[in-house]
Design goal:
Distance between the termini: 58 Å
Number of helices: 14
Helix content: 25-40%
CATH topology of the largest domain: pyruvate-formate lyase- activating enzyme
CATH architecture of the largest domain: Alpha-Beta Horseshoe
Number of strands: 19
Shape: globular
Length: about 450
């Protein structure tokens, strides 16, 4: 019997993307051919997100879209992986009969077995305990050659009242420094120039293994062992910003002066209801120490609007602080009511239109802040990691140190030198429009 061609759809965050990359490698090693064309696939694997309602809808829509290929082409099987599979397990089979296999987040190493079972006409379900999952593993990197993510830990212990991640991904587990150093070396060998550290809470890294926060030490070990030019850190928490981490970001030339620091709110009442670690003073202190300790740092943050019980006064406090703090990068989310989380049963749920109105107001306010900060860059030269050429706009584009992939803006620029993807290019900024910058290569 011939082996099936496998198609992949990967949804959600970079942490989920890394799971996709591990599964791709395992299937490739097992002799399966991977195709980028869904219409050619015999089996399609959908690696899903289920963090909020919109992510669940996207996952279901994708499954239903590829189910059309079962009726009208030669697709034989659909495998649902990731957070939706983990969170709803048997319900996936009941609600989506088009699905032939369910593979939870703790069972990604069973993917070859799932493919074999589906190809031979049998249903398959595996949702092993997340704590038993072997962390790391070889992978086929699906990001551009010059950029990759490094998952330094799995799971979460923070237990925010709105979040289902601990239920889906299990408790927080750090990977040993030596394993991460080895993986970074492998990524450097394939040409990676920007390594982005991710976890549910990167600032907690090491506490379970070493009895103390070791993110700063990990950054030092990674830069000592490789020559990768850019290291970027996402998903830190305000209550875990240590003096050592601030010093490492400040003094290590290859650690970008950029940090992702979700605050979620500034009202003490809301922070308590969200079960966030630390109060408004903790948030303000972390931001102040980062600004004072690391000149020129870019802070990205996020906030939730419309959380149960959020009053107009709570929302005004948030607006005022966002305006005051002048975060260089900011995103907001209307609260998503997630079953099996404590906040699902909280009283005083907020009307959907009120949530949307507050979101719109906050983002309109931030756009003004962002445009002002961008205008201040006109006339200055920034280093840009070139990501390609847009033939329609006839311009090159890329990201500066201040911009993480997919979530931040771009720098568009003209150049007579025709830089390649992955080249670092000095660009003099001449214009700022909304969240993007425009300039000329020097």
């Amino acid at each position: 019997m011939r082996k099936p061609k496998i198609g992949f759809i990967s949804l959600g965050c970079p942490k989920n993307q890394i799971d996709t990359e591990v599964m791709l490698k395992e299937l490739s090693d097992a002799g399966y051919e991977i195709t980028g064309e869904e219409i050619e696939a015999d089996i399609i694997i959908v690696n899903t997100c289920a963090f909020i309602e919109s992510a669940k809808k996207e996952a279901i829509d994708n499954i239903l879209d590829v189910a059309w290929l079962k009726k009208h082409r030669h697709l034989k099987g659909i495998i649902c992986c990731g957070c939706l599979a983990e969170r709803y397990r048997e319900q996936v089979f009941e609600e989506l009969p088009e699905v032939d296999a369910v593979v939870g987040t703790g069972s990604i190493h069973k993917i070859a077995e799932a493919v074999k079972e589906v190809w031979e006409g049998r249903k398959f379900l595996s949702c092993e305990k997340n704590e038993c999952l072997r962390l790391g593993g070889e992978r086929i990197v699906t990001t551009p050659d010059y950029t990759a993510y490094l998952k330094i830990a799995e799971g979460c212990d923070n237990r925010c009242s709105y979040c289902a991640i601990p239920m889906i991904r299990g408790g927080f587990r750090s990977r040993p420094i030596e394993d991460l150093v080895e993986e970074a070396k492998q990524l450097e060998a394939i040409g990676v120039k920007e390594l982005i550290l991710v976890a549910q809470d990167t600032s907690r890294y090491g506490l379970d293994l070493y009895g103390e926060y070791r993110l700063a030490g990990l950054l030092r070990a990674l830069t000592d062992a490789t020559s990768i030019p850019w290291f970027r850190v996402l998903y830190c928490y305000p209550d875990k910003i240590t003096d050592e981490l601030i010093a490492e970001i400040r003094d290590n030339d290859r650690v970008l002066k950029y940090i992702d620091l979700p605050i979620q709110h500034i009202s003490d009442r809301m922070l308590r209801a969200m079960n966030r670690h630390g109060d408004s003073a903790t948030v303000r202190d972390a931001v102040r120490r980062l600004r004072e300790g690391i000149p020129g740092i870019v802070i990205r943050t996020t906030a939730i609007v419309g959380f149960p019980g959020e009053t107009e006064e709570d929302f005004r406090q948030l607006c005022e602080y966002i305006k005051e703090a002048k975060f260089e990068r900011f995103g907001a989310f209307p609260y998503s009511r997630e079953e099996d989380t404590p906040a699902y049963d909280f009283p005083d749920q907020i009307d959907e239109q009120v949530k949307q109105d507050r979101y719109d107001e906050l983002m309109a306010q931030q756009l003004e802040v962002h445009e002002k900060l961008n205008r201040e860059k006109i006339g200055k030269t920034v280093t840009v990691l070139c990501e390609g050429f847009d033939p329609v706009a006839e311009t090159f584009y890329g990201r500066s140190a201040a911009d993480a992939p997919d979530i931040d803006g771009k720098v568009y620029f003209s150049s007579s030198a025709h830089p390649a993807e992955g080249d670092f290019v000095p660009v003099k900024i001449t214009e700022a429009i909304d969240y993007d910058l425009y300039g000329e290569a020097e």
